[in-house]
Amino acid sequence: MATATQLRGQGETKTPARPRGPRLALVDPANFLLATRDTGYKSTALALAELIDNSLQAGATEVGVEVVSARHGTFPIEISVSDNGRGMGPHTLAAALTFGGSTRFGDRSSLGRYGMGLPNGALSRARRVEVYSWTGASVWMSRLDVEEIVRRRRRTLPPVTEVDDPPFVPSAESGTVVRLLRCDRLEHKRVSTVVRHLSAELGRIYRDFIRKGCALTVNGSRVAPSDPLMLDDPGRSAGARQFGDTLVYRVAGADGEGQIEVRFSELPVERWHGLASSEKRRLGITNAPPVSVLRADREIDRGWFFMGTKRRENYDDWWRCEVRFEPVLDELFGITHAKQAIAPTSELLDLLASDLEPIGRALNGRVRRRFELLKVSTPLGNAERLAARAENGLPPLPRNPEPVPPELESVVASCEPTRSGDHPYRVVVSELPTTAAFETIVQQGTLIVALNSRHPLYRDLYAPLAASEDSGNQDVAMHVALTVLAAARAEWLDPRRAGRAARRRFRQSWSDVLASFFNVQP
Questions:
Q1: What is the residue extent of each domain of the chain?
Q2: Distance CA 232, CA 312 (A)
Q3: What is the CATH number of domain 241-373?
Q4: How crowded is the C-beta side of 420, counted as CA atoms within 13 Å?
Q5: Splitting the chain (522 residues) into consecutive groups of 10 residues, what average pLDDT does each group show?
Q6: What pTM was estimated for this model as a whole?
């Protein structure tokens, strides 16, 4: 006969015929509310993103965040998020502040899924949340107040009420306003500081939605999209180039097959390396997470992901990676209801790291080599200045130069904008796609000469001299650069395109013979 000890753990325990203990609620509302406030949103922007997600899913084309000073001395800041979405009637609004009360629970087609975002995100920063919504003339209001639940031991939300005089004037036929009152967990105490950080973070998080036409504002000012890959935005913070093709993966998820897209970019080392450290930080060049992860076109995390055993180095500040995935793959990425971090499964790490780690190492090596090239640039600058002093005594360069060959467009892009007359020469070092010792381009009155870092003229002659600590060797390197400048300028003095083409052919033949001579073993 089996003993009681032997029977334990075998199968499920059956419910006793008669209750033998007190019946307890599944959740204690007060304790649950206090615990959920510690969900741990990394920033106020990520907490507010939960509210903005709801606005976008409600079809809003305008979303406004307002940060204002409050009259309450202990809680000096109030925040509201308003939209022109579909709005909610009283029955839908009644469920909006309940945890898991979403009508879209389990939906994998867009931003929301669990119905936890509104109360979770709001209470992570405030002790009282008021939600106003309307679909016509009537404005309805629901609230969730920590004090009411905790101190008065309430177990249910207050009823939804119709508001005759809301604390705002509805600017659309339908919409929703969420007010965060008694904010006690903001990172910053000044309205201006909160606004500045929100504008920067929300521009990055919702960059795709802003580009597609969503008018997102903070205190009335339009939020500009911010691309961490530095590929698509106007202004000085753009200028990177995509590295390689976009990688596309089709992966089986919990509810079907989903897609992952990955792309990389290289930052313009030659243009930005000389910026002040404070300016590099301001532009997000240094001390910025290299990998941005987007779910349903909304950024949910950034950091150092999918790089296998590669450790992050300073050179990794100069490239970026973007990983996009569909919500059907939430389980693989380890998405929780807070939607602000990923915890990839080993299966996903193995899949992506096998491709992404080699690319990360290759980009690190490319950046390292570009910085090494910059170390030997001093003699080039000296040669540029000396040649410029002789410019007035030389025949002018052609006014209508030939178009830039496609293979040399990156060389031109790597140069700072030239100033005609002040800087008639520019010498750069680049990994050229040709076997010539150097290539020449005329742009806006400036002669650009690109030394081929793979050719022996640079590798075995110029670079060792320029890298030397001996000033005499560096002077010789400068004269090598002047010699190349003279050959390049002479090539452009021929007014006939056919003549210049013949000179280019001669330069190519000369480069090949020179490489053969230099490569002969002594």
A1: 29-222, 241-373, 377-519
A2: 25
A3: 3.30.230
A4: 7
A5: 47 57 63 75 92 94 96 89 95 84 53 68 93 94 90 80 92 95 94 96 96 96 94 70 96 90 94 90 91 96 96 96 95 82 95 97 94 85 93 81 77 59 81 91 86 94 92 94 94 81 92 95 80
A6: 0.75
